[in-house]
Amino acid sequence: MPESSTIDPDTADWLTLDEDEEIVWSGKPHESSLIPALVVGLPLSIILIGLFIIAGSYLQRENTQYIVTTDGLYKKTGILSRDVQRIDFGKVQNTSYSQDFFGSRFGYGNVDISTAGGSGIEMQFRSVPDPREVQELINKRVKGSRGQSKTESGETKRDVLDEILVELRAIRSTLDTQQEPTGNTAATTSNTDTAVGEQSAGEDTTSQNEFVSSNQTIEDSPADQESADER
Question: How does DSSP classify residue 108?
Fold first, then answer.
């Protein structure tokens, strides 16, 4: 369904759009949706009740408006009063459409919209032409809103995620750079400790040899003295 607008936001005093919000589709109940009222009302027109049924259905259709914008959904109803409802695309959870006996034959039906955390159907486009295409248009806008939703600074979520990824890579590179000198220092310290250990072991061996030689000298001295006495 081509995205088009059949309503002028300047003449619709009930419609309040944001600065960058635009209408992509608008409509009202299909003309054929009056057929059930005519079928029931015409036989009863003799007692005037049927005329009220037909007139009520007509006024209800003329005072009902459905709008899809770049940011959300709008619905206006009411004959003597006015009831305006809006749902942002970010809150839409599920959409569905249905057609009754007359709707399937004359090409109109209902589009139901449910929101996250809501109970049941929160908004219904009743008797709109081509309900399946209207549902597809809403789903397309909902997906686009979720993929391109902007933060307060005007950046999309994807832009924010890309910036976070770049920062994480920079931090990782810095950590890797800092770990390389630390690893070299640890290796140098290990080599120094090994050399000191080897030197200490060598000194301990030398001291032990000197101690053994001294003991042998002491043991040999009395024997030499006895040999001198015998002489």
Answer: E
Quick check: helix, strand or coil at residue 210?
helix
What is the pTM (predicted TM-score) of this model?
0.61
Give the model's pLDDT for residue 228: 45
Report the 10 Å Cβ neighbour count for 68: 22
Instruction: For residue 62, give every residue at least 6 positions away whose Cβ sits within 8 Å of its Cβ, in sequence order, or none.
Output: 28
The tokens for 104 are 């399937």
Summarised one tens digit per residue, pLDDT across range 75-98 is: 999 988 999 999 999 999 999 999
* DSSP per-residue letters across 111-125: EEEEETT--S-SEEE
Alpha-carbon dihedral 52, 54, 57, 59, rounded to 10 degrees: -70
pLDDT digit string, tens, across residues 146-202: 765 554 444 556 667 777 888 888 888 888 888 766 555 555 555 545 544 555 445
Please give the backbone phi and psi of residue 123, each rounded to the nearest 5 degrees, phi first.
-150, 145
Pairing of strands 23-27, 65-69: antiparallel
User: How far, in Å, CA of 182 to CA of 119, rounded?
Assistant: 60
Return d(Cα 172, Cα 167) in angstroms, integer: 9
Kindly tell me the sign of the dihedral angle through the C-alpha atoms of 99, 100, 103, 109: negative
- Quote the DSSP letter at residue 96: E
- DSSP secondary structure, 1-42, as one string: ------S-TTT-TT----TT--EEEEE---GGGGHHHHHHHT
Q: How far apart are the first and last CA of the chain?
A: 136
Q: In what order do the strands lie in the sheet with 123-129?
A: 92-98, 108-115, 123-129
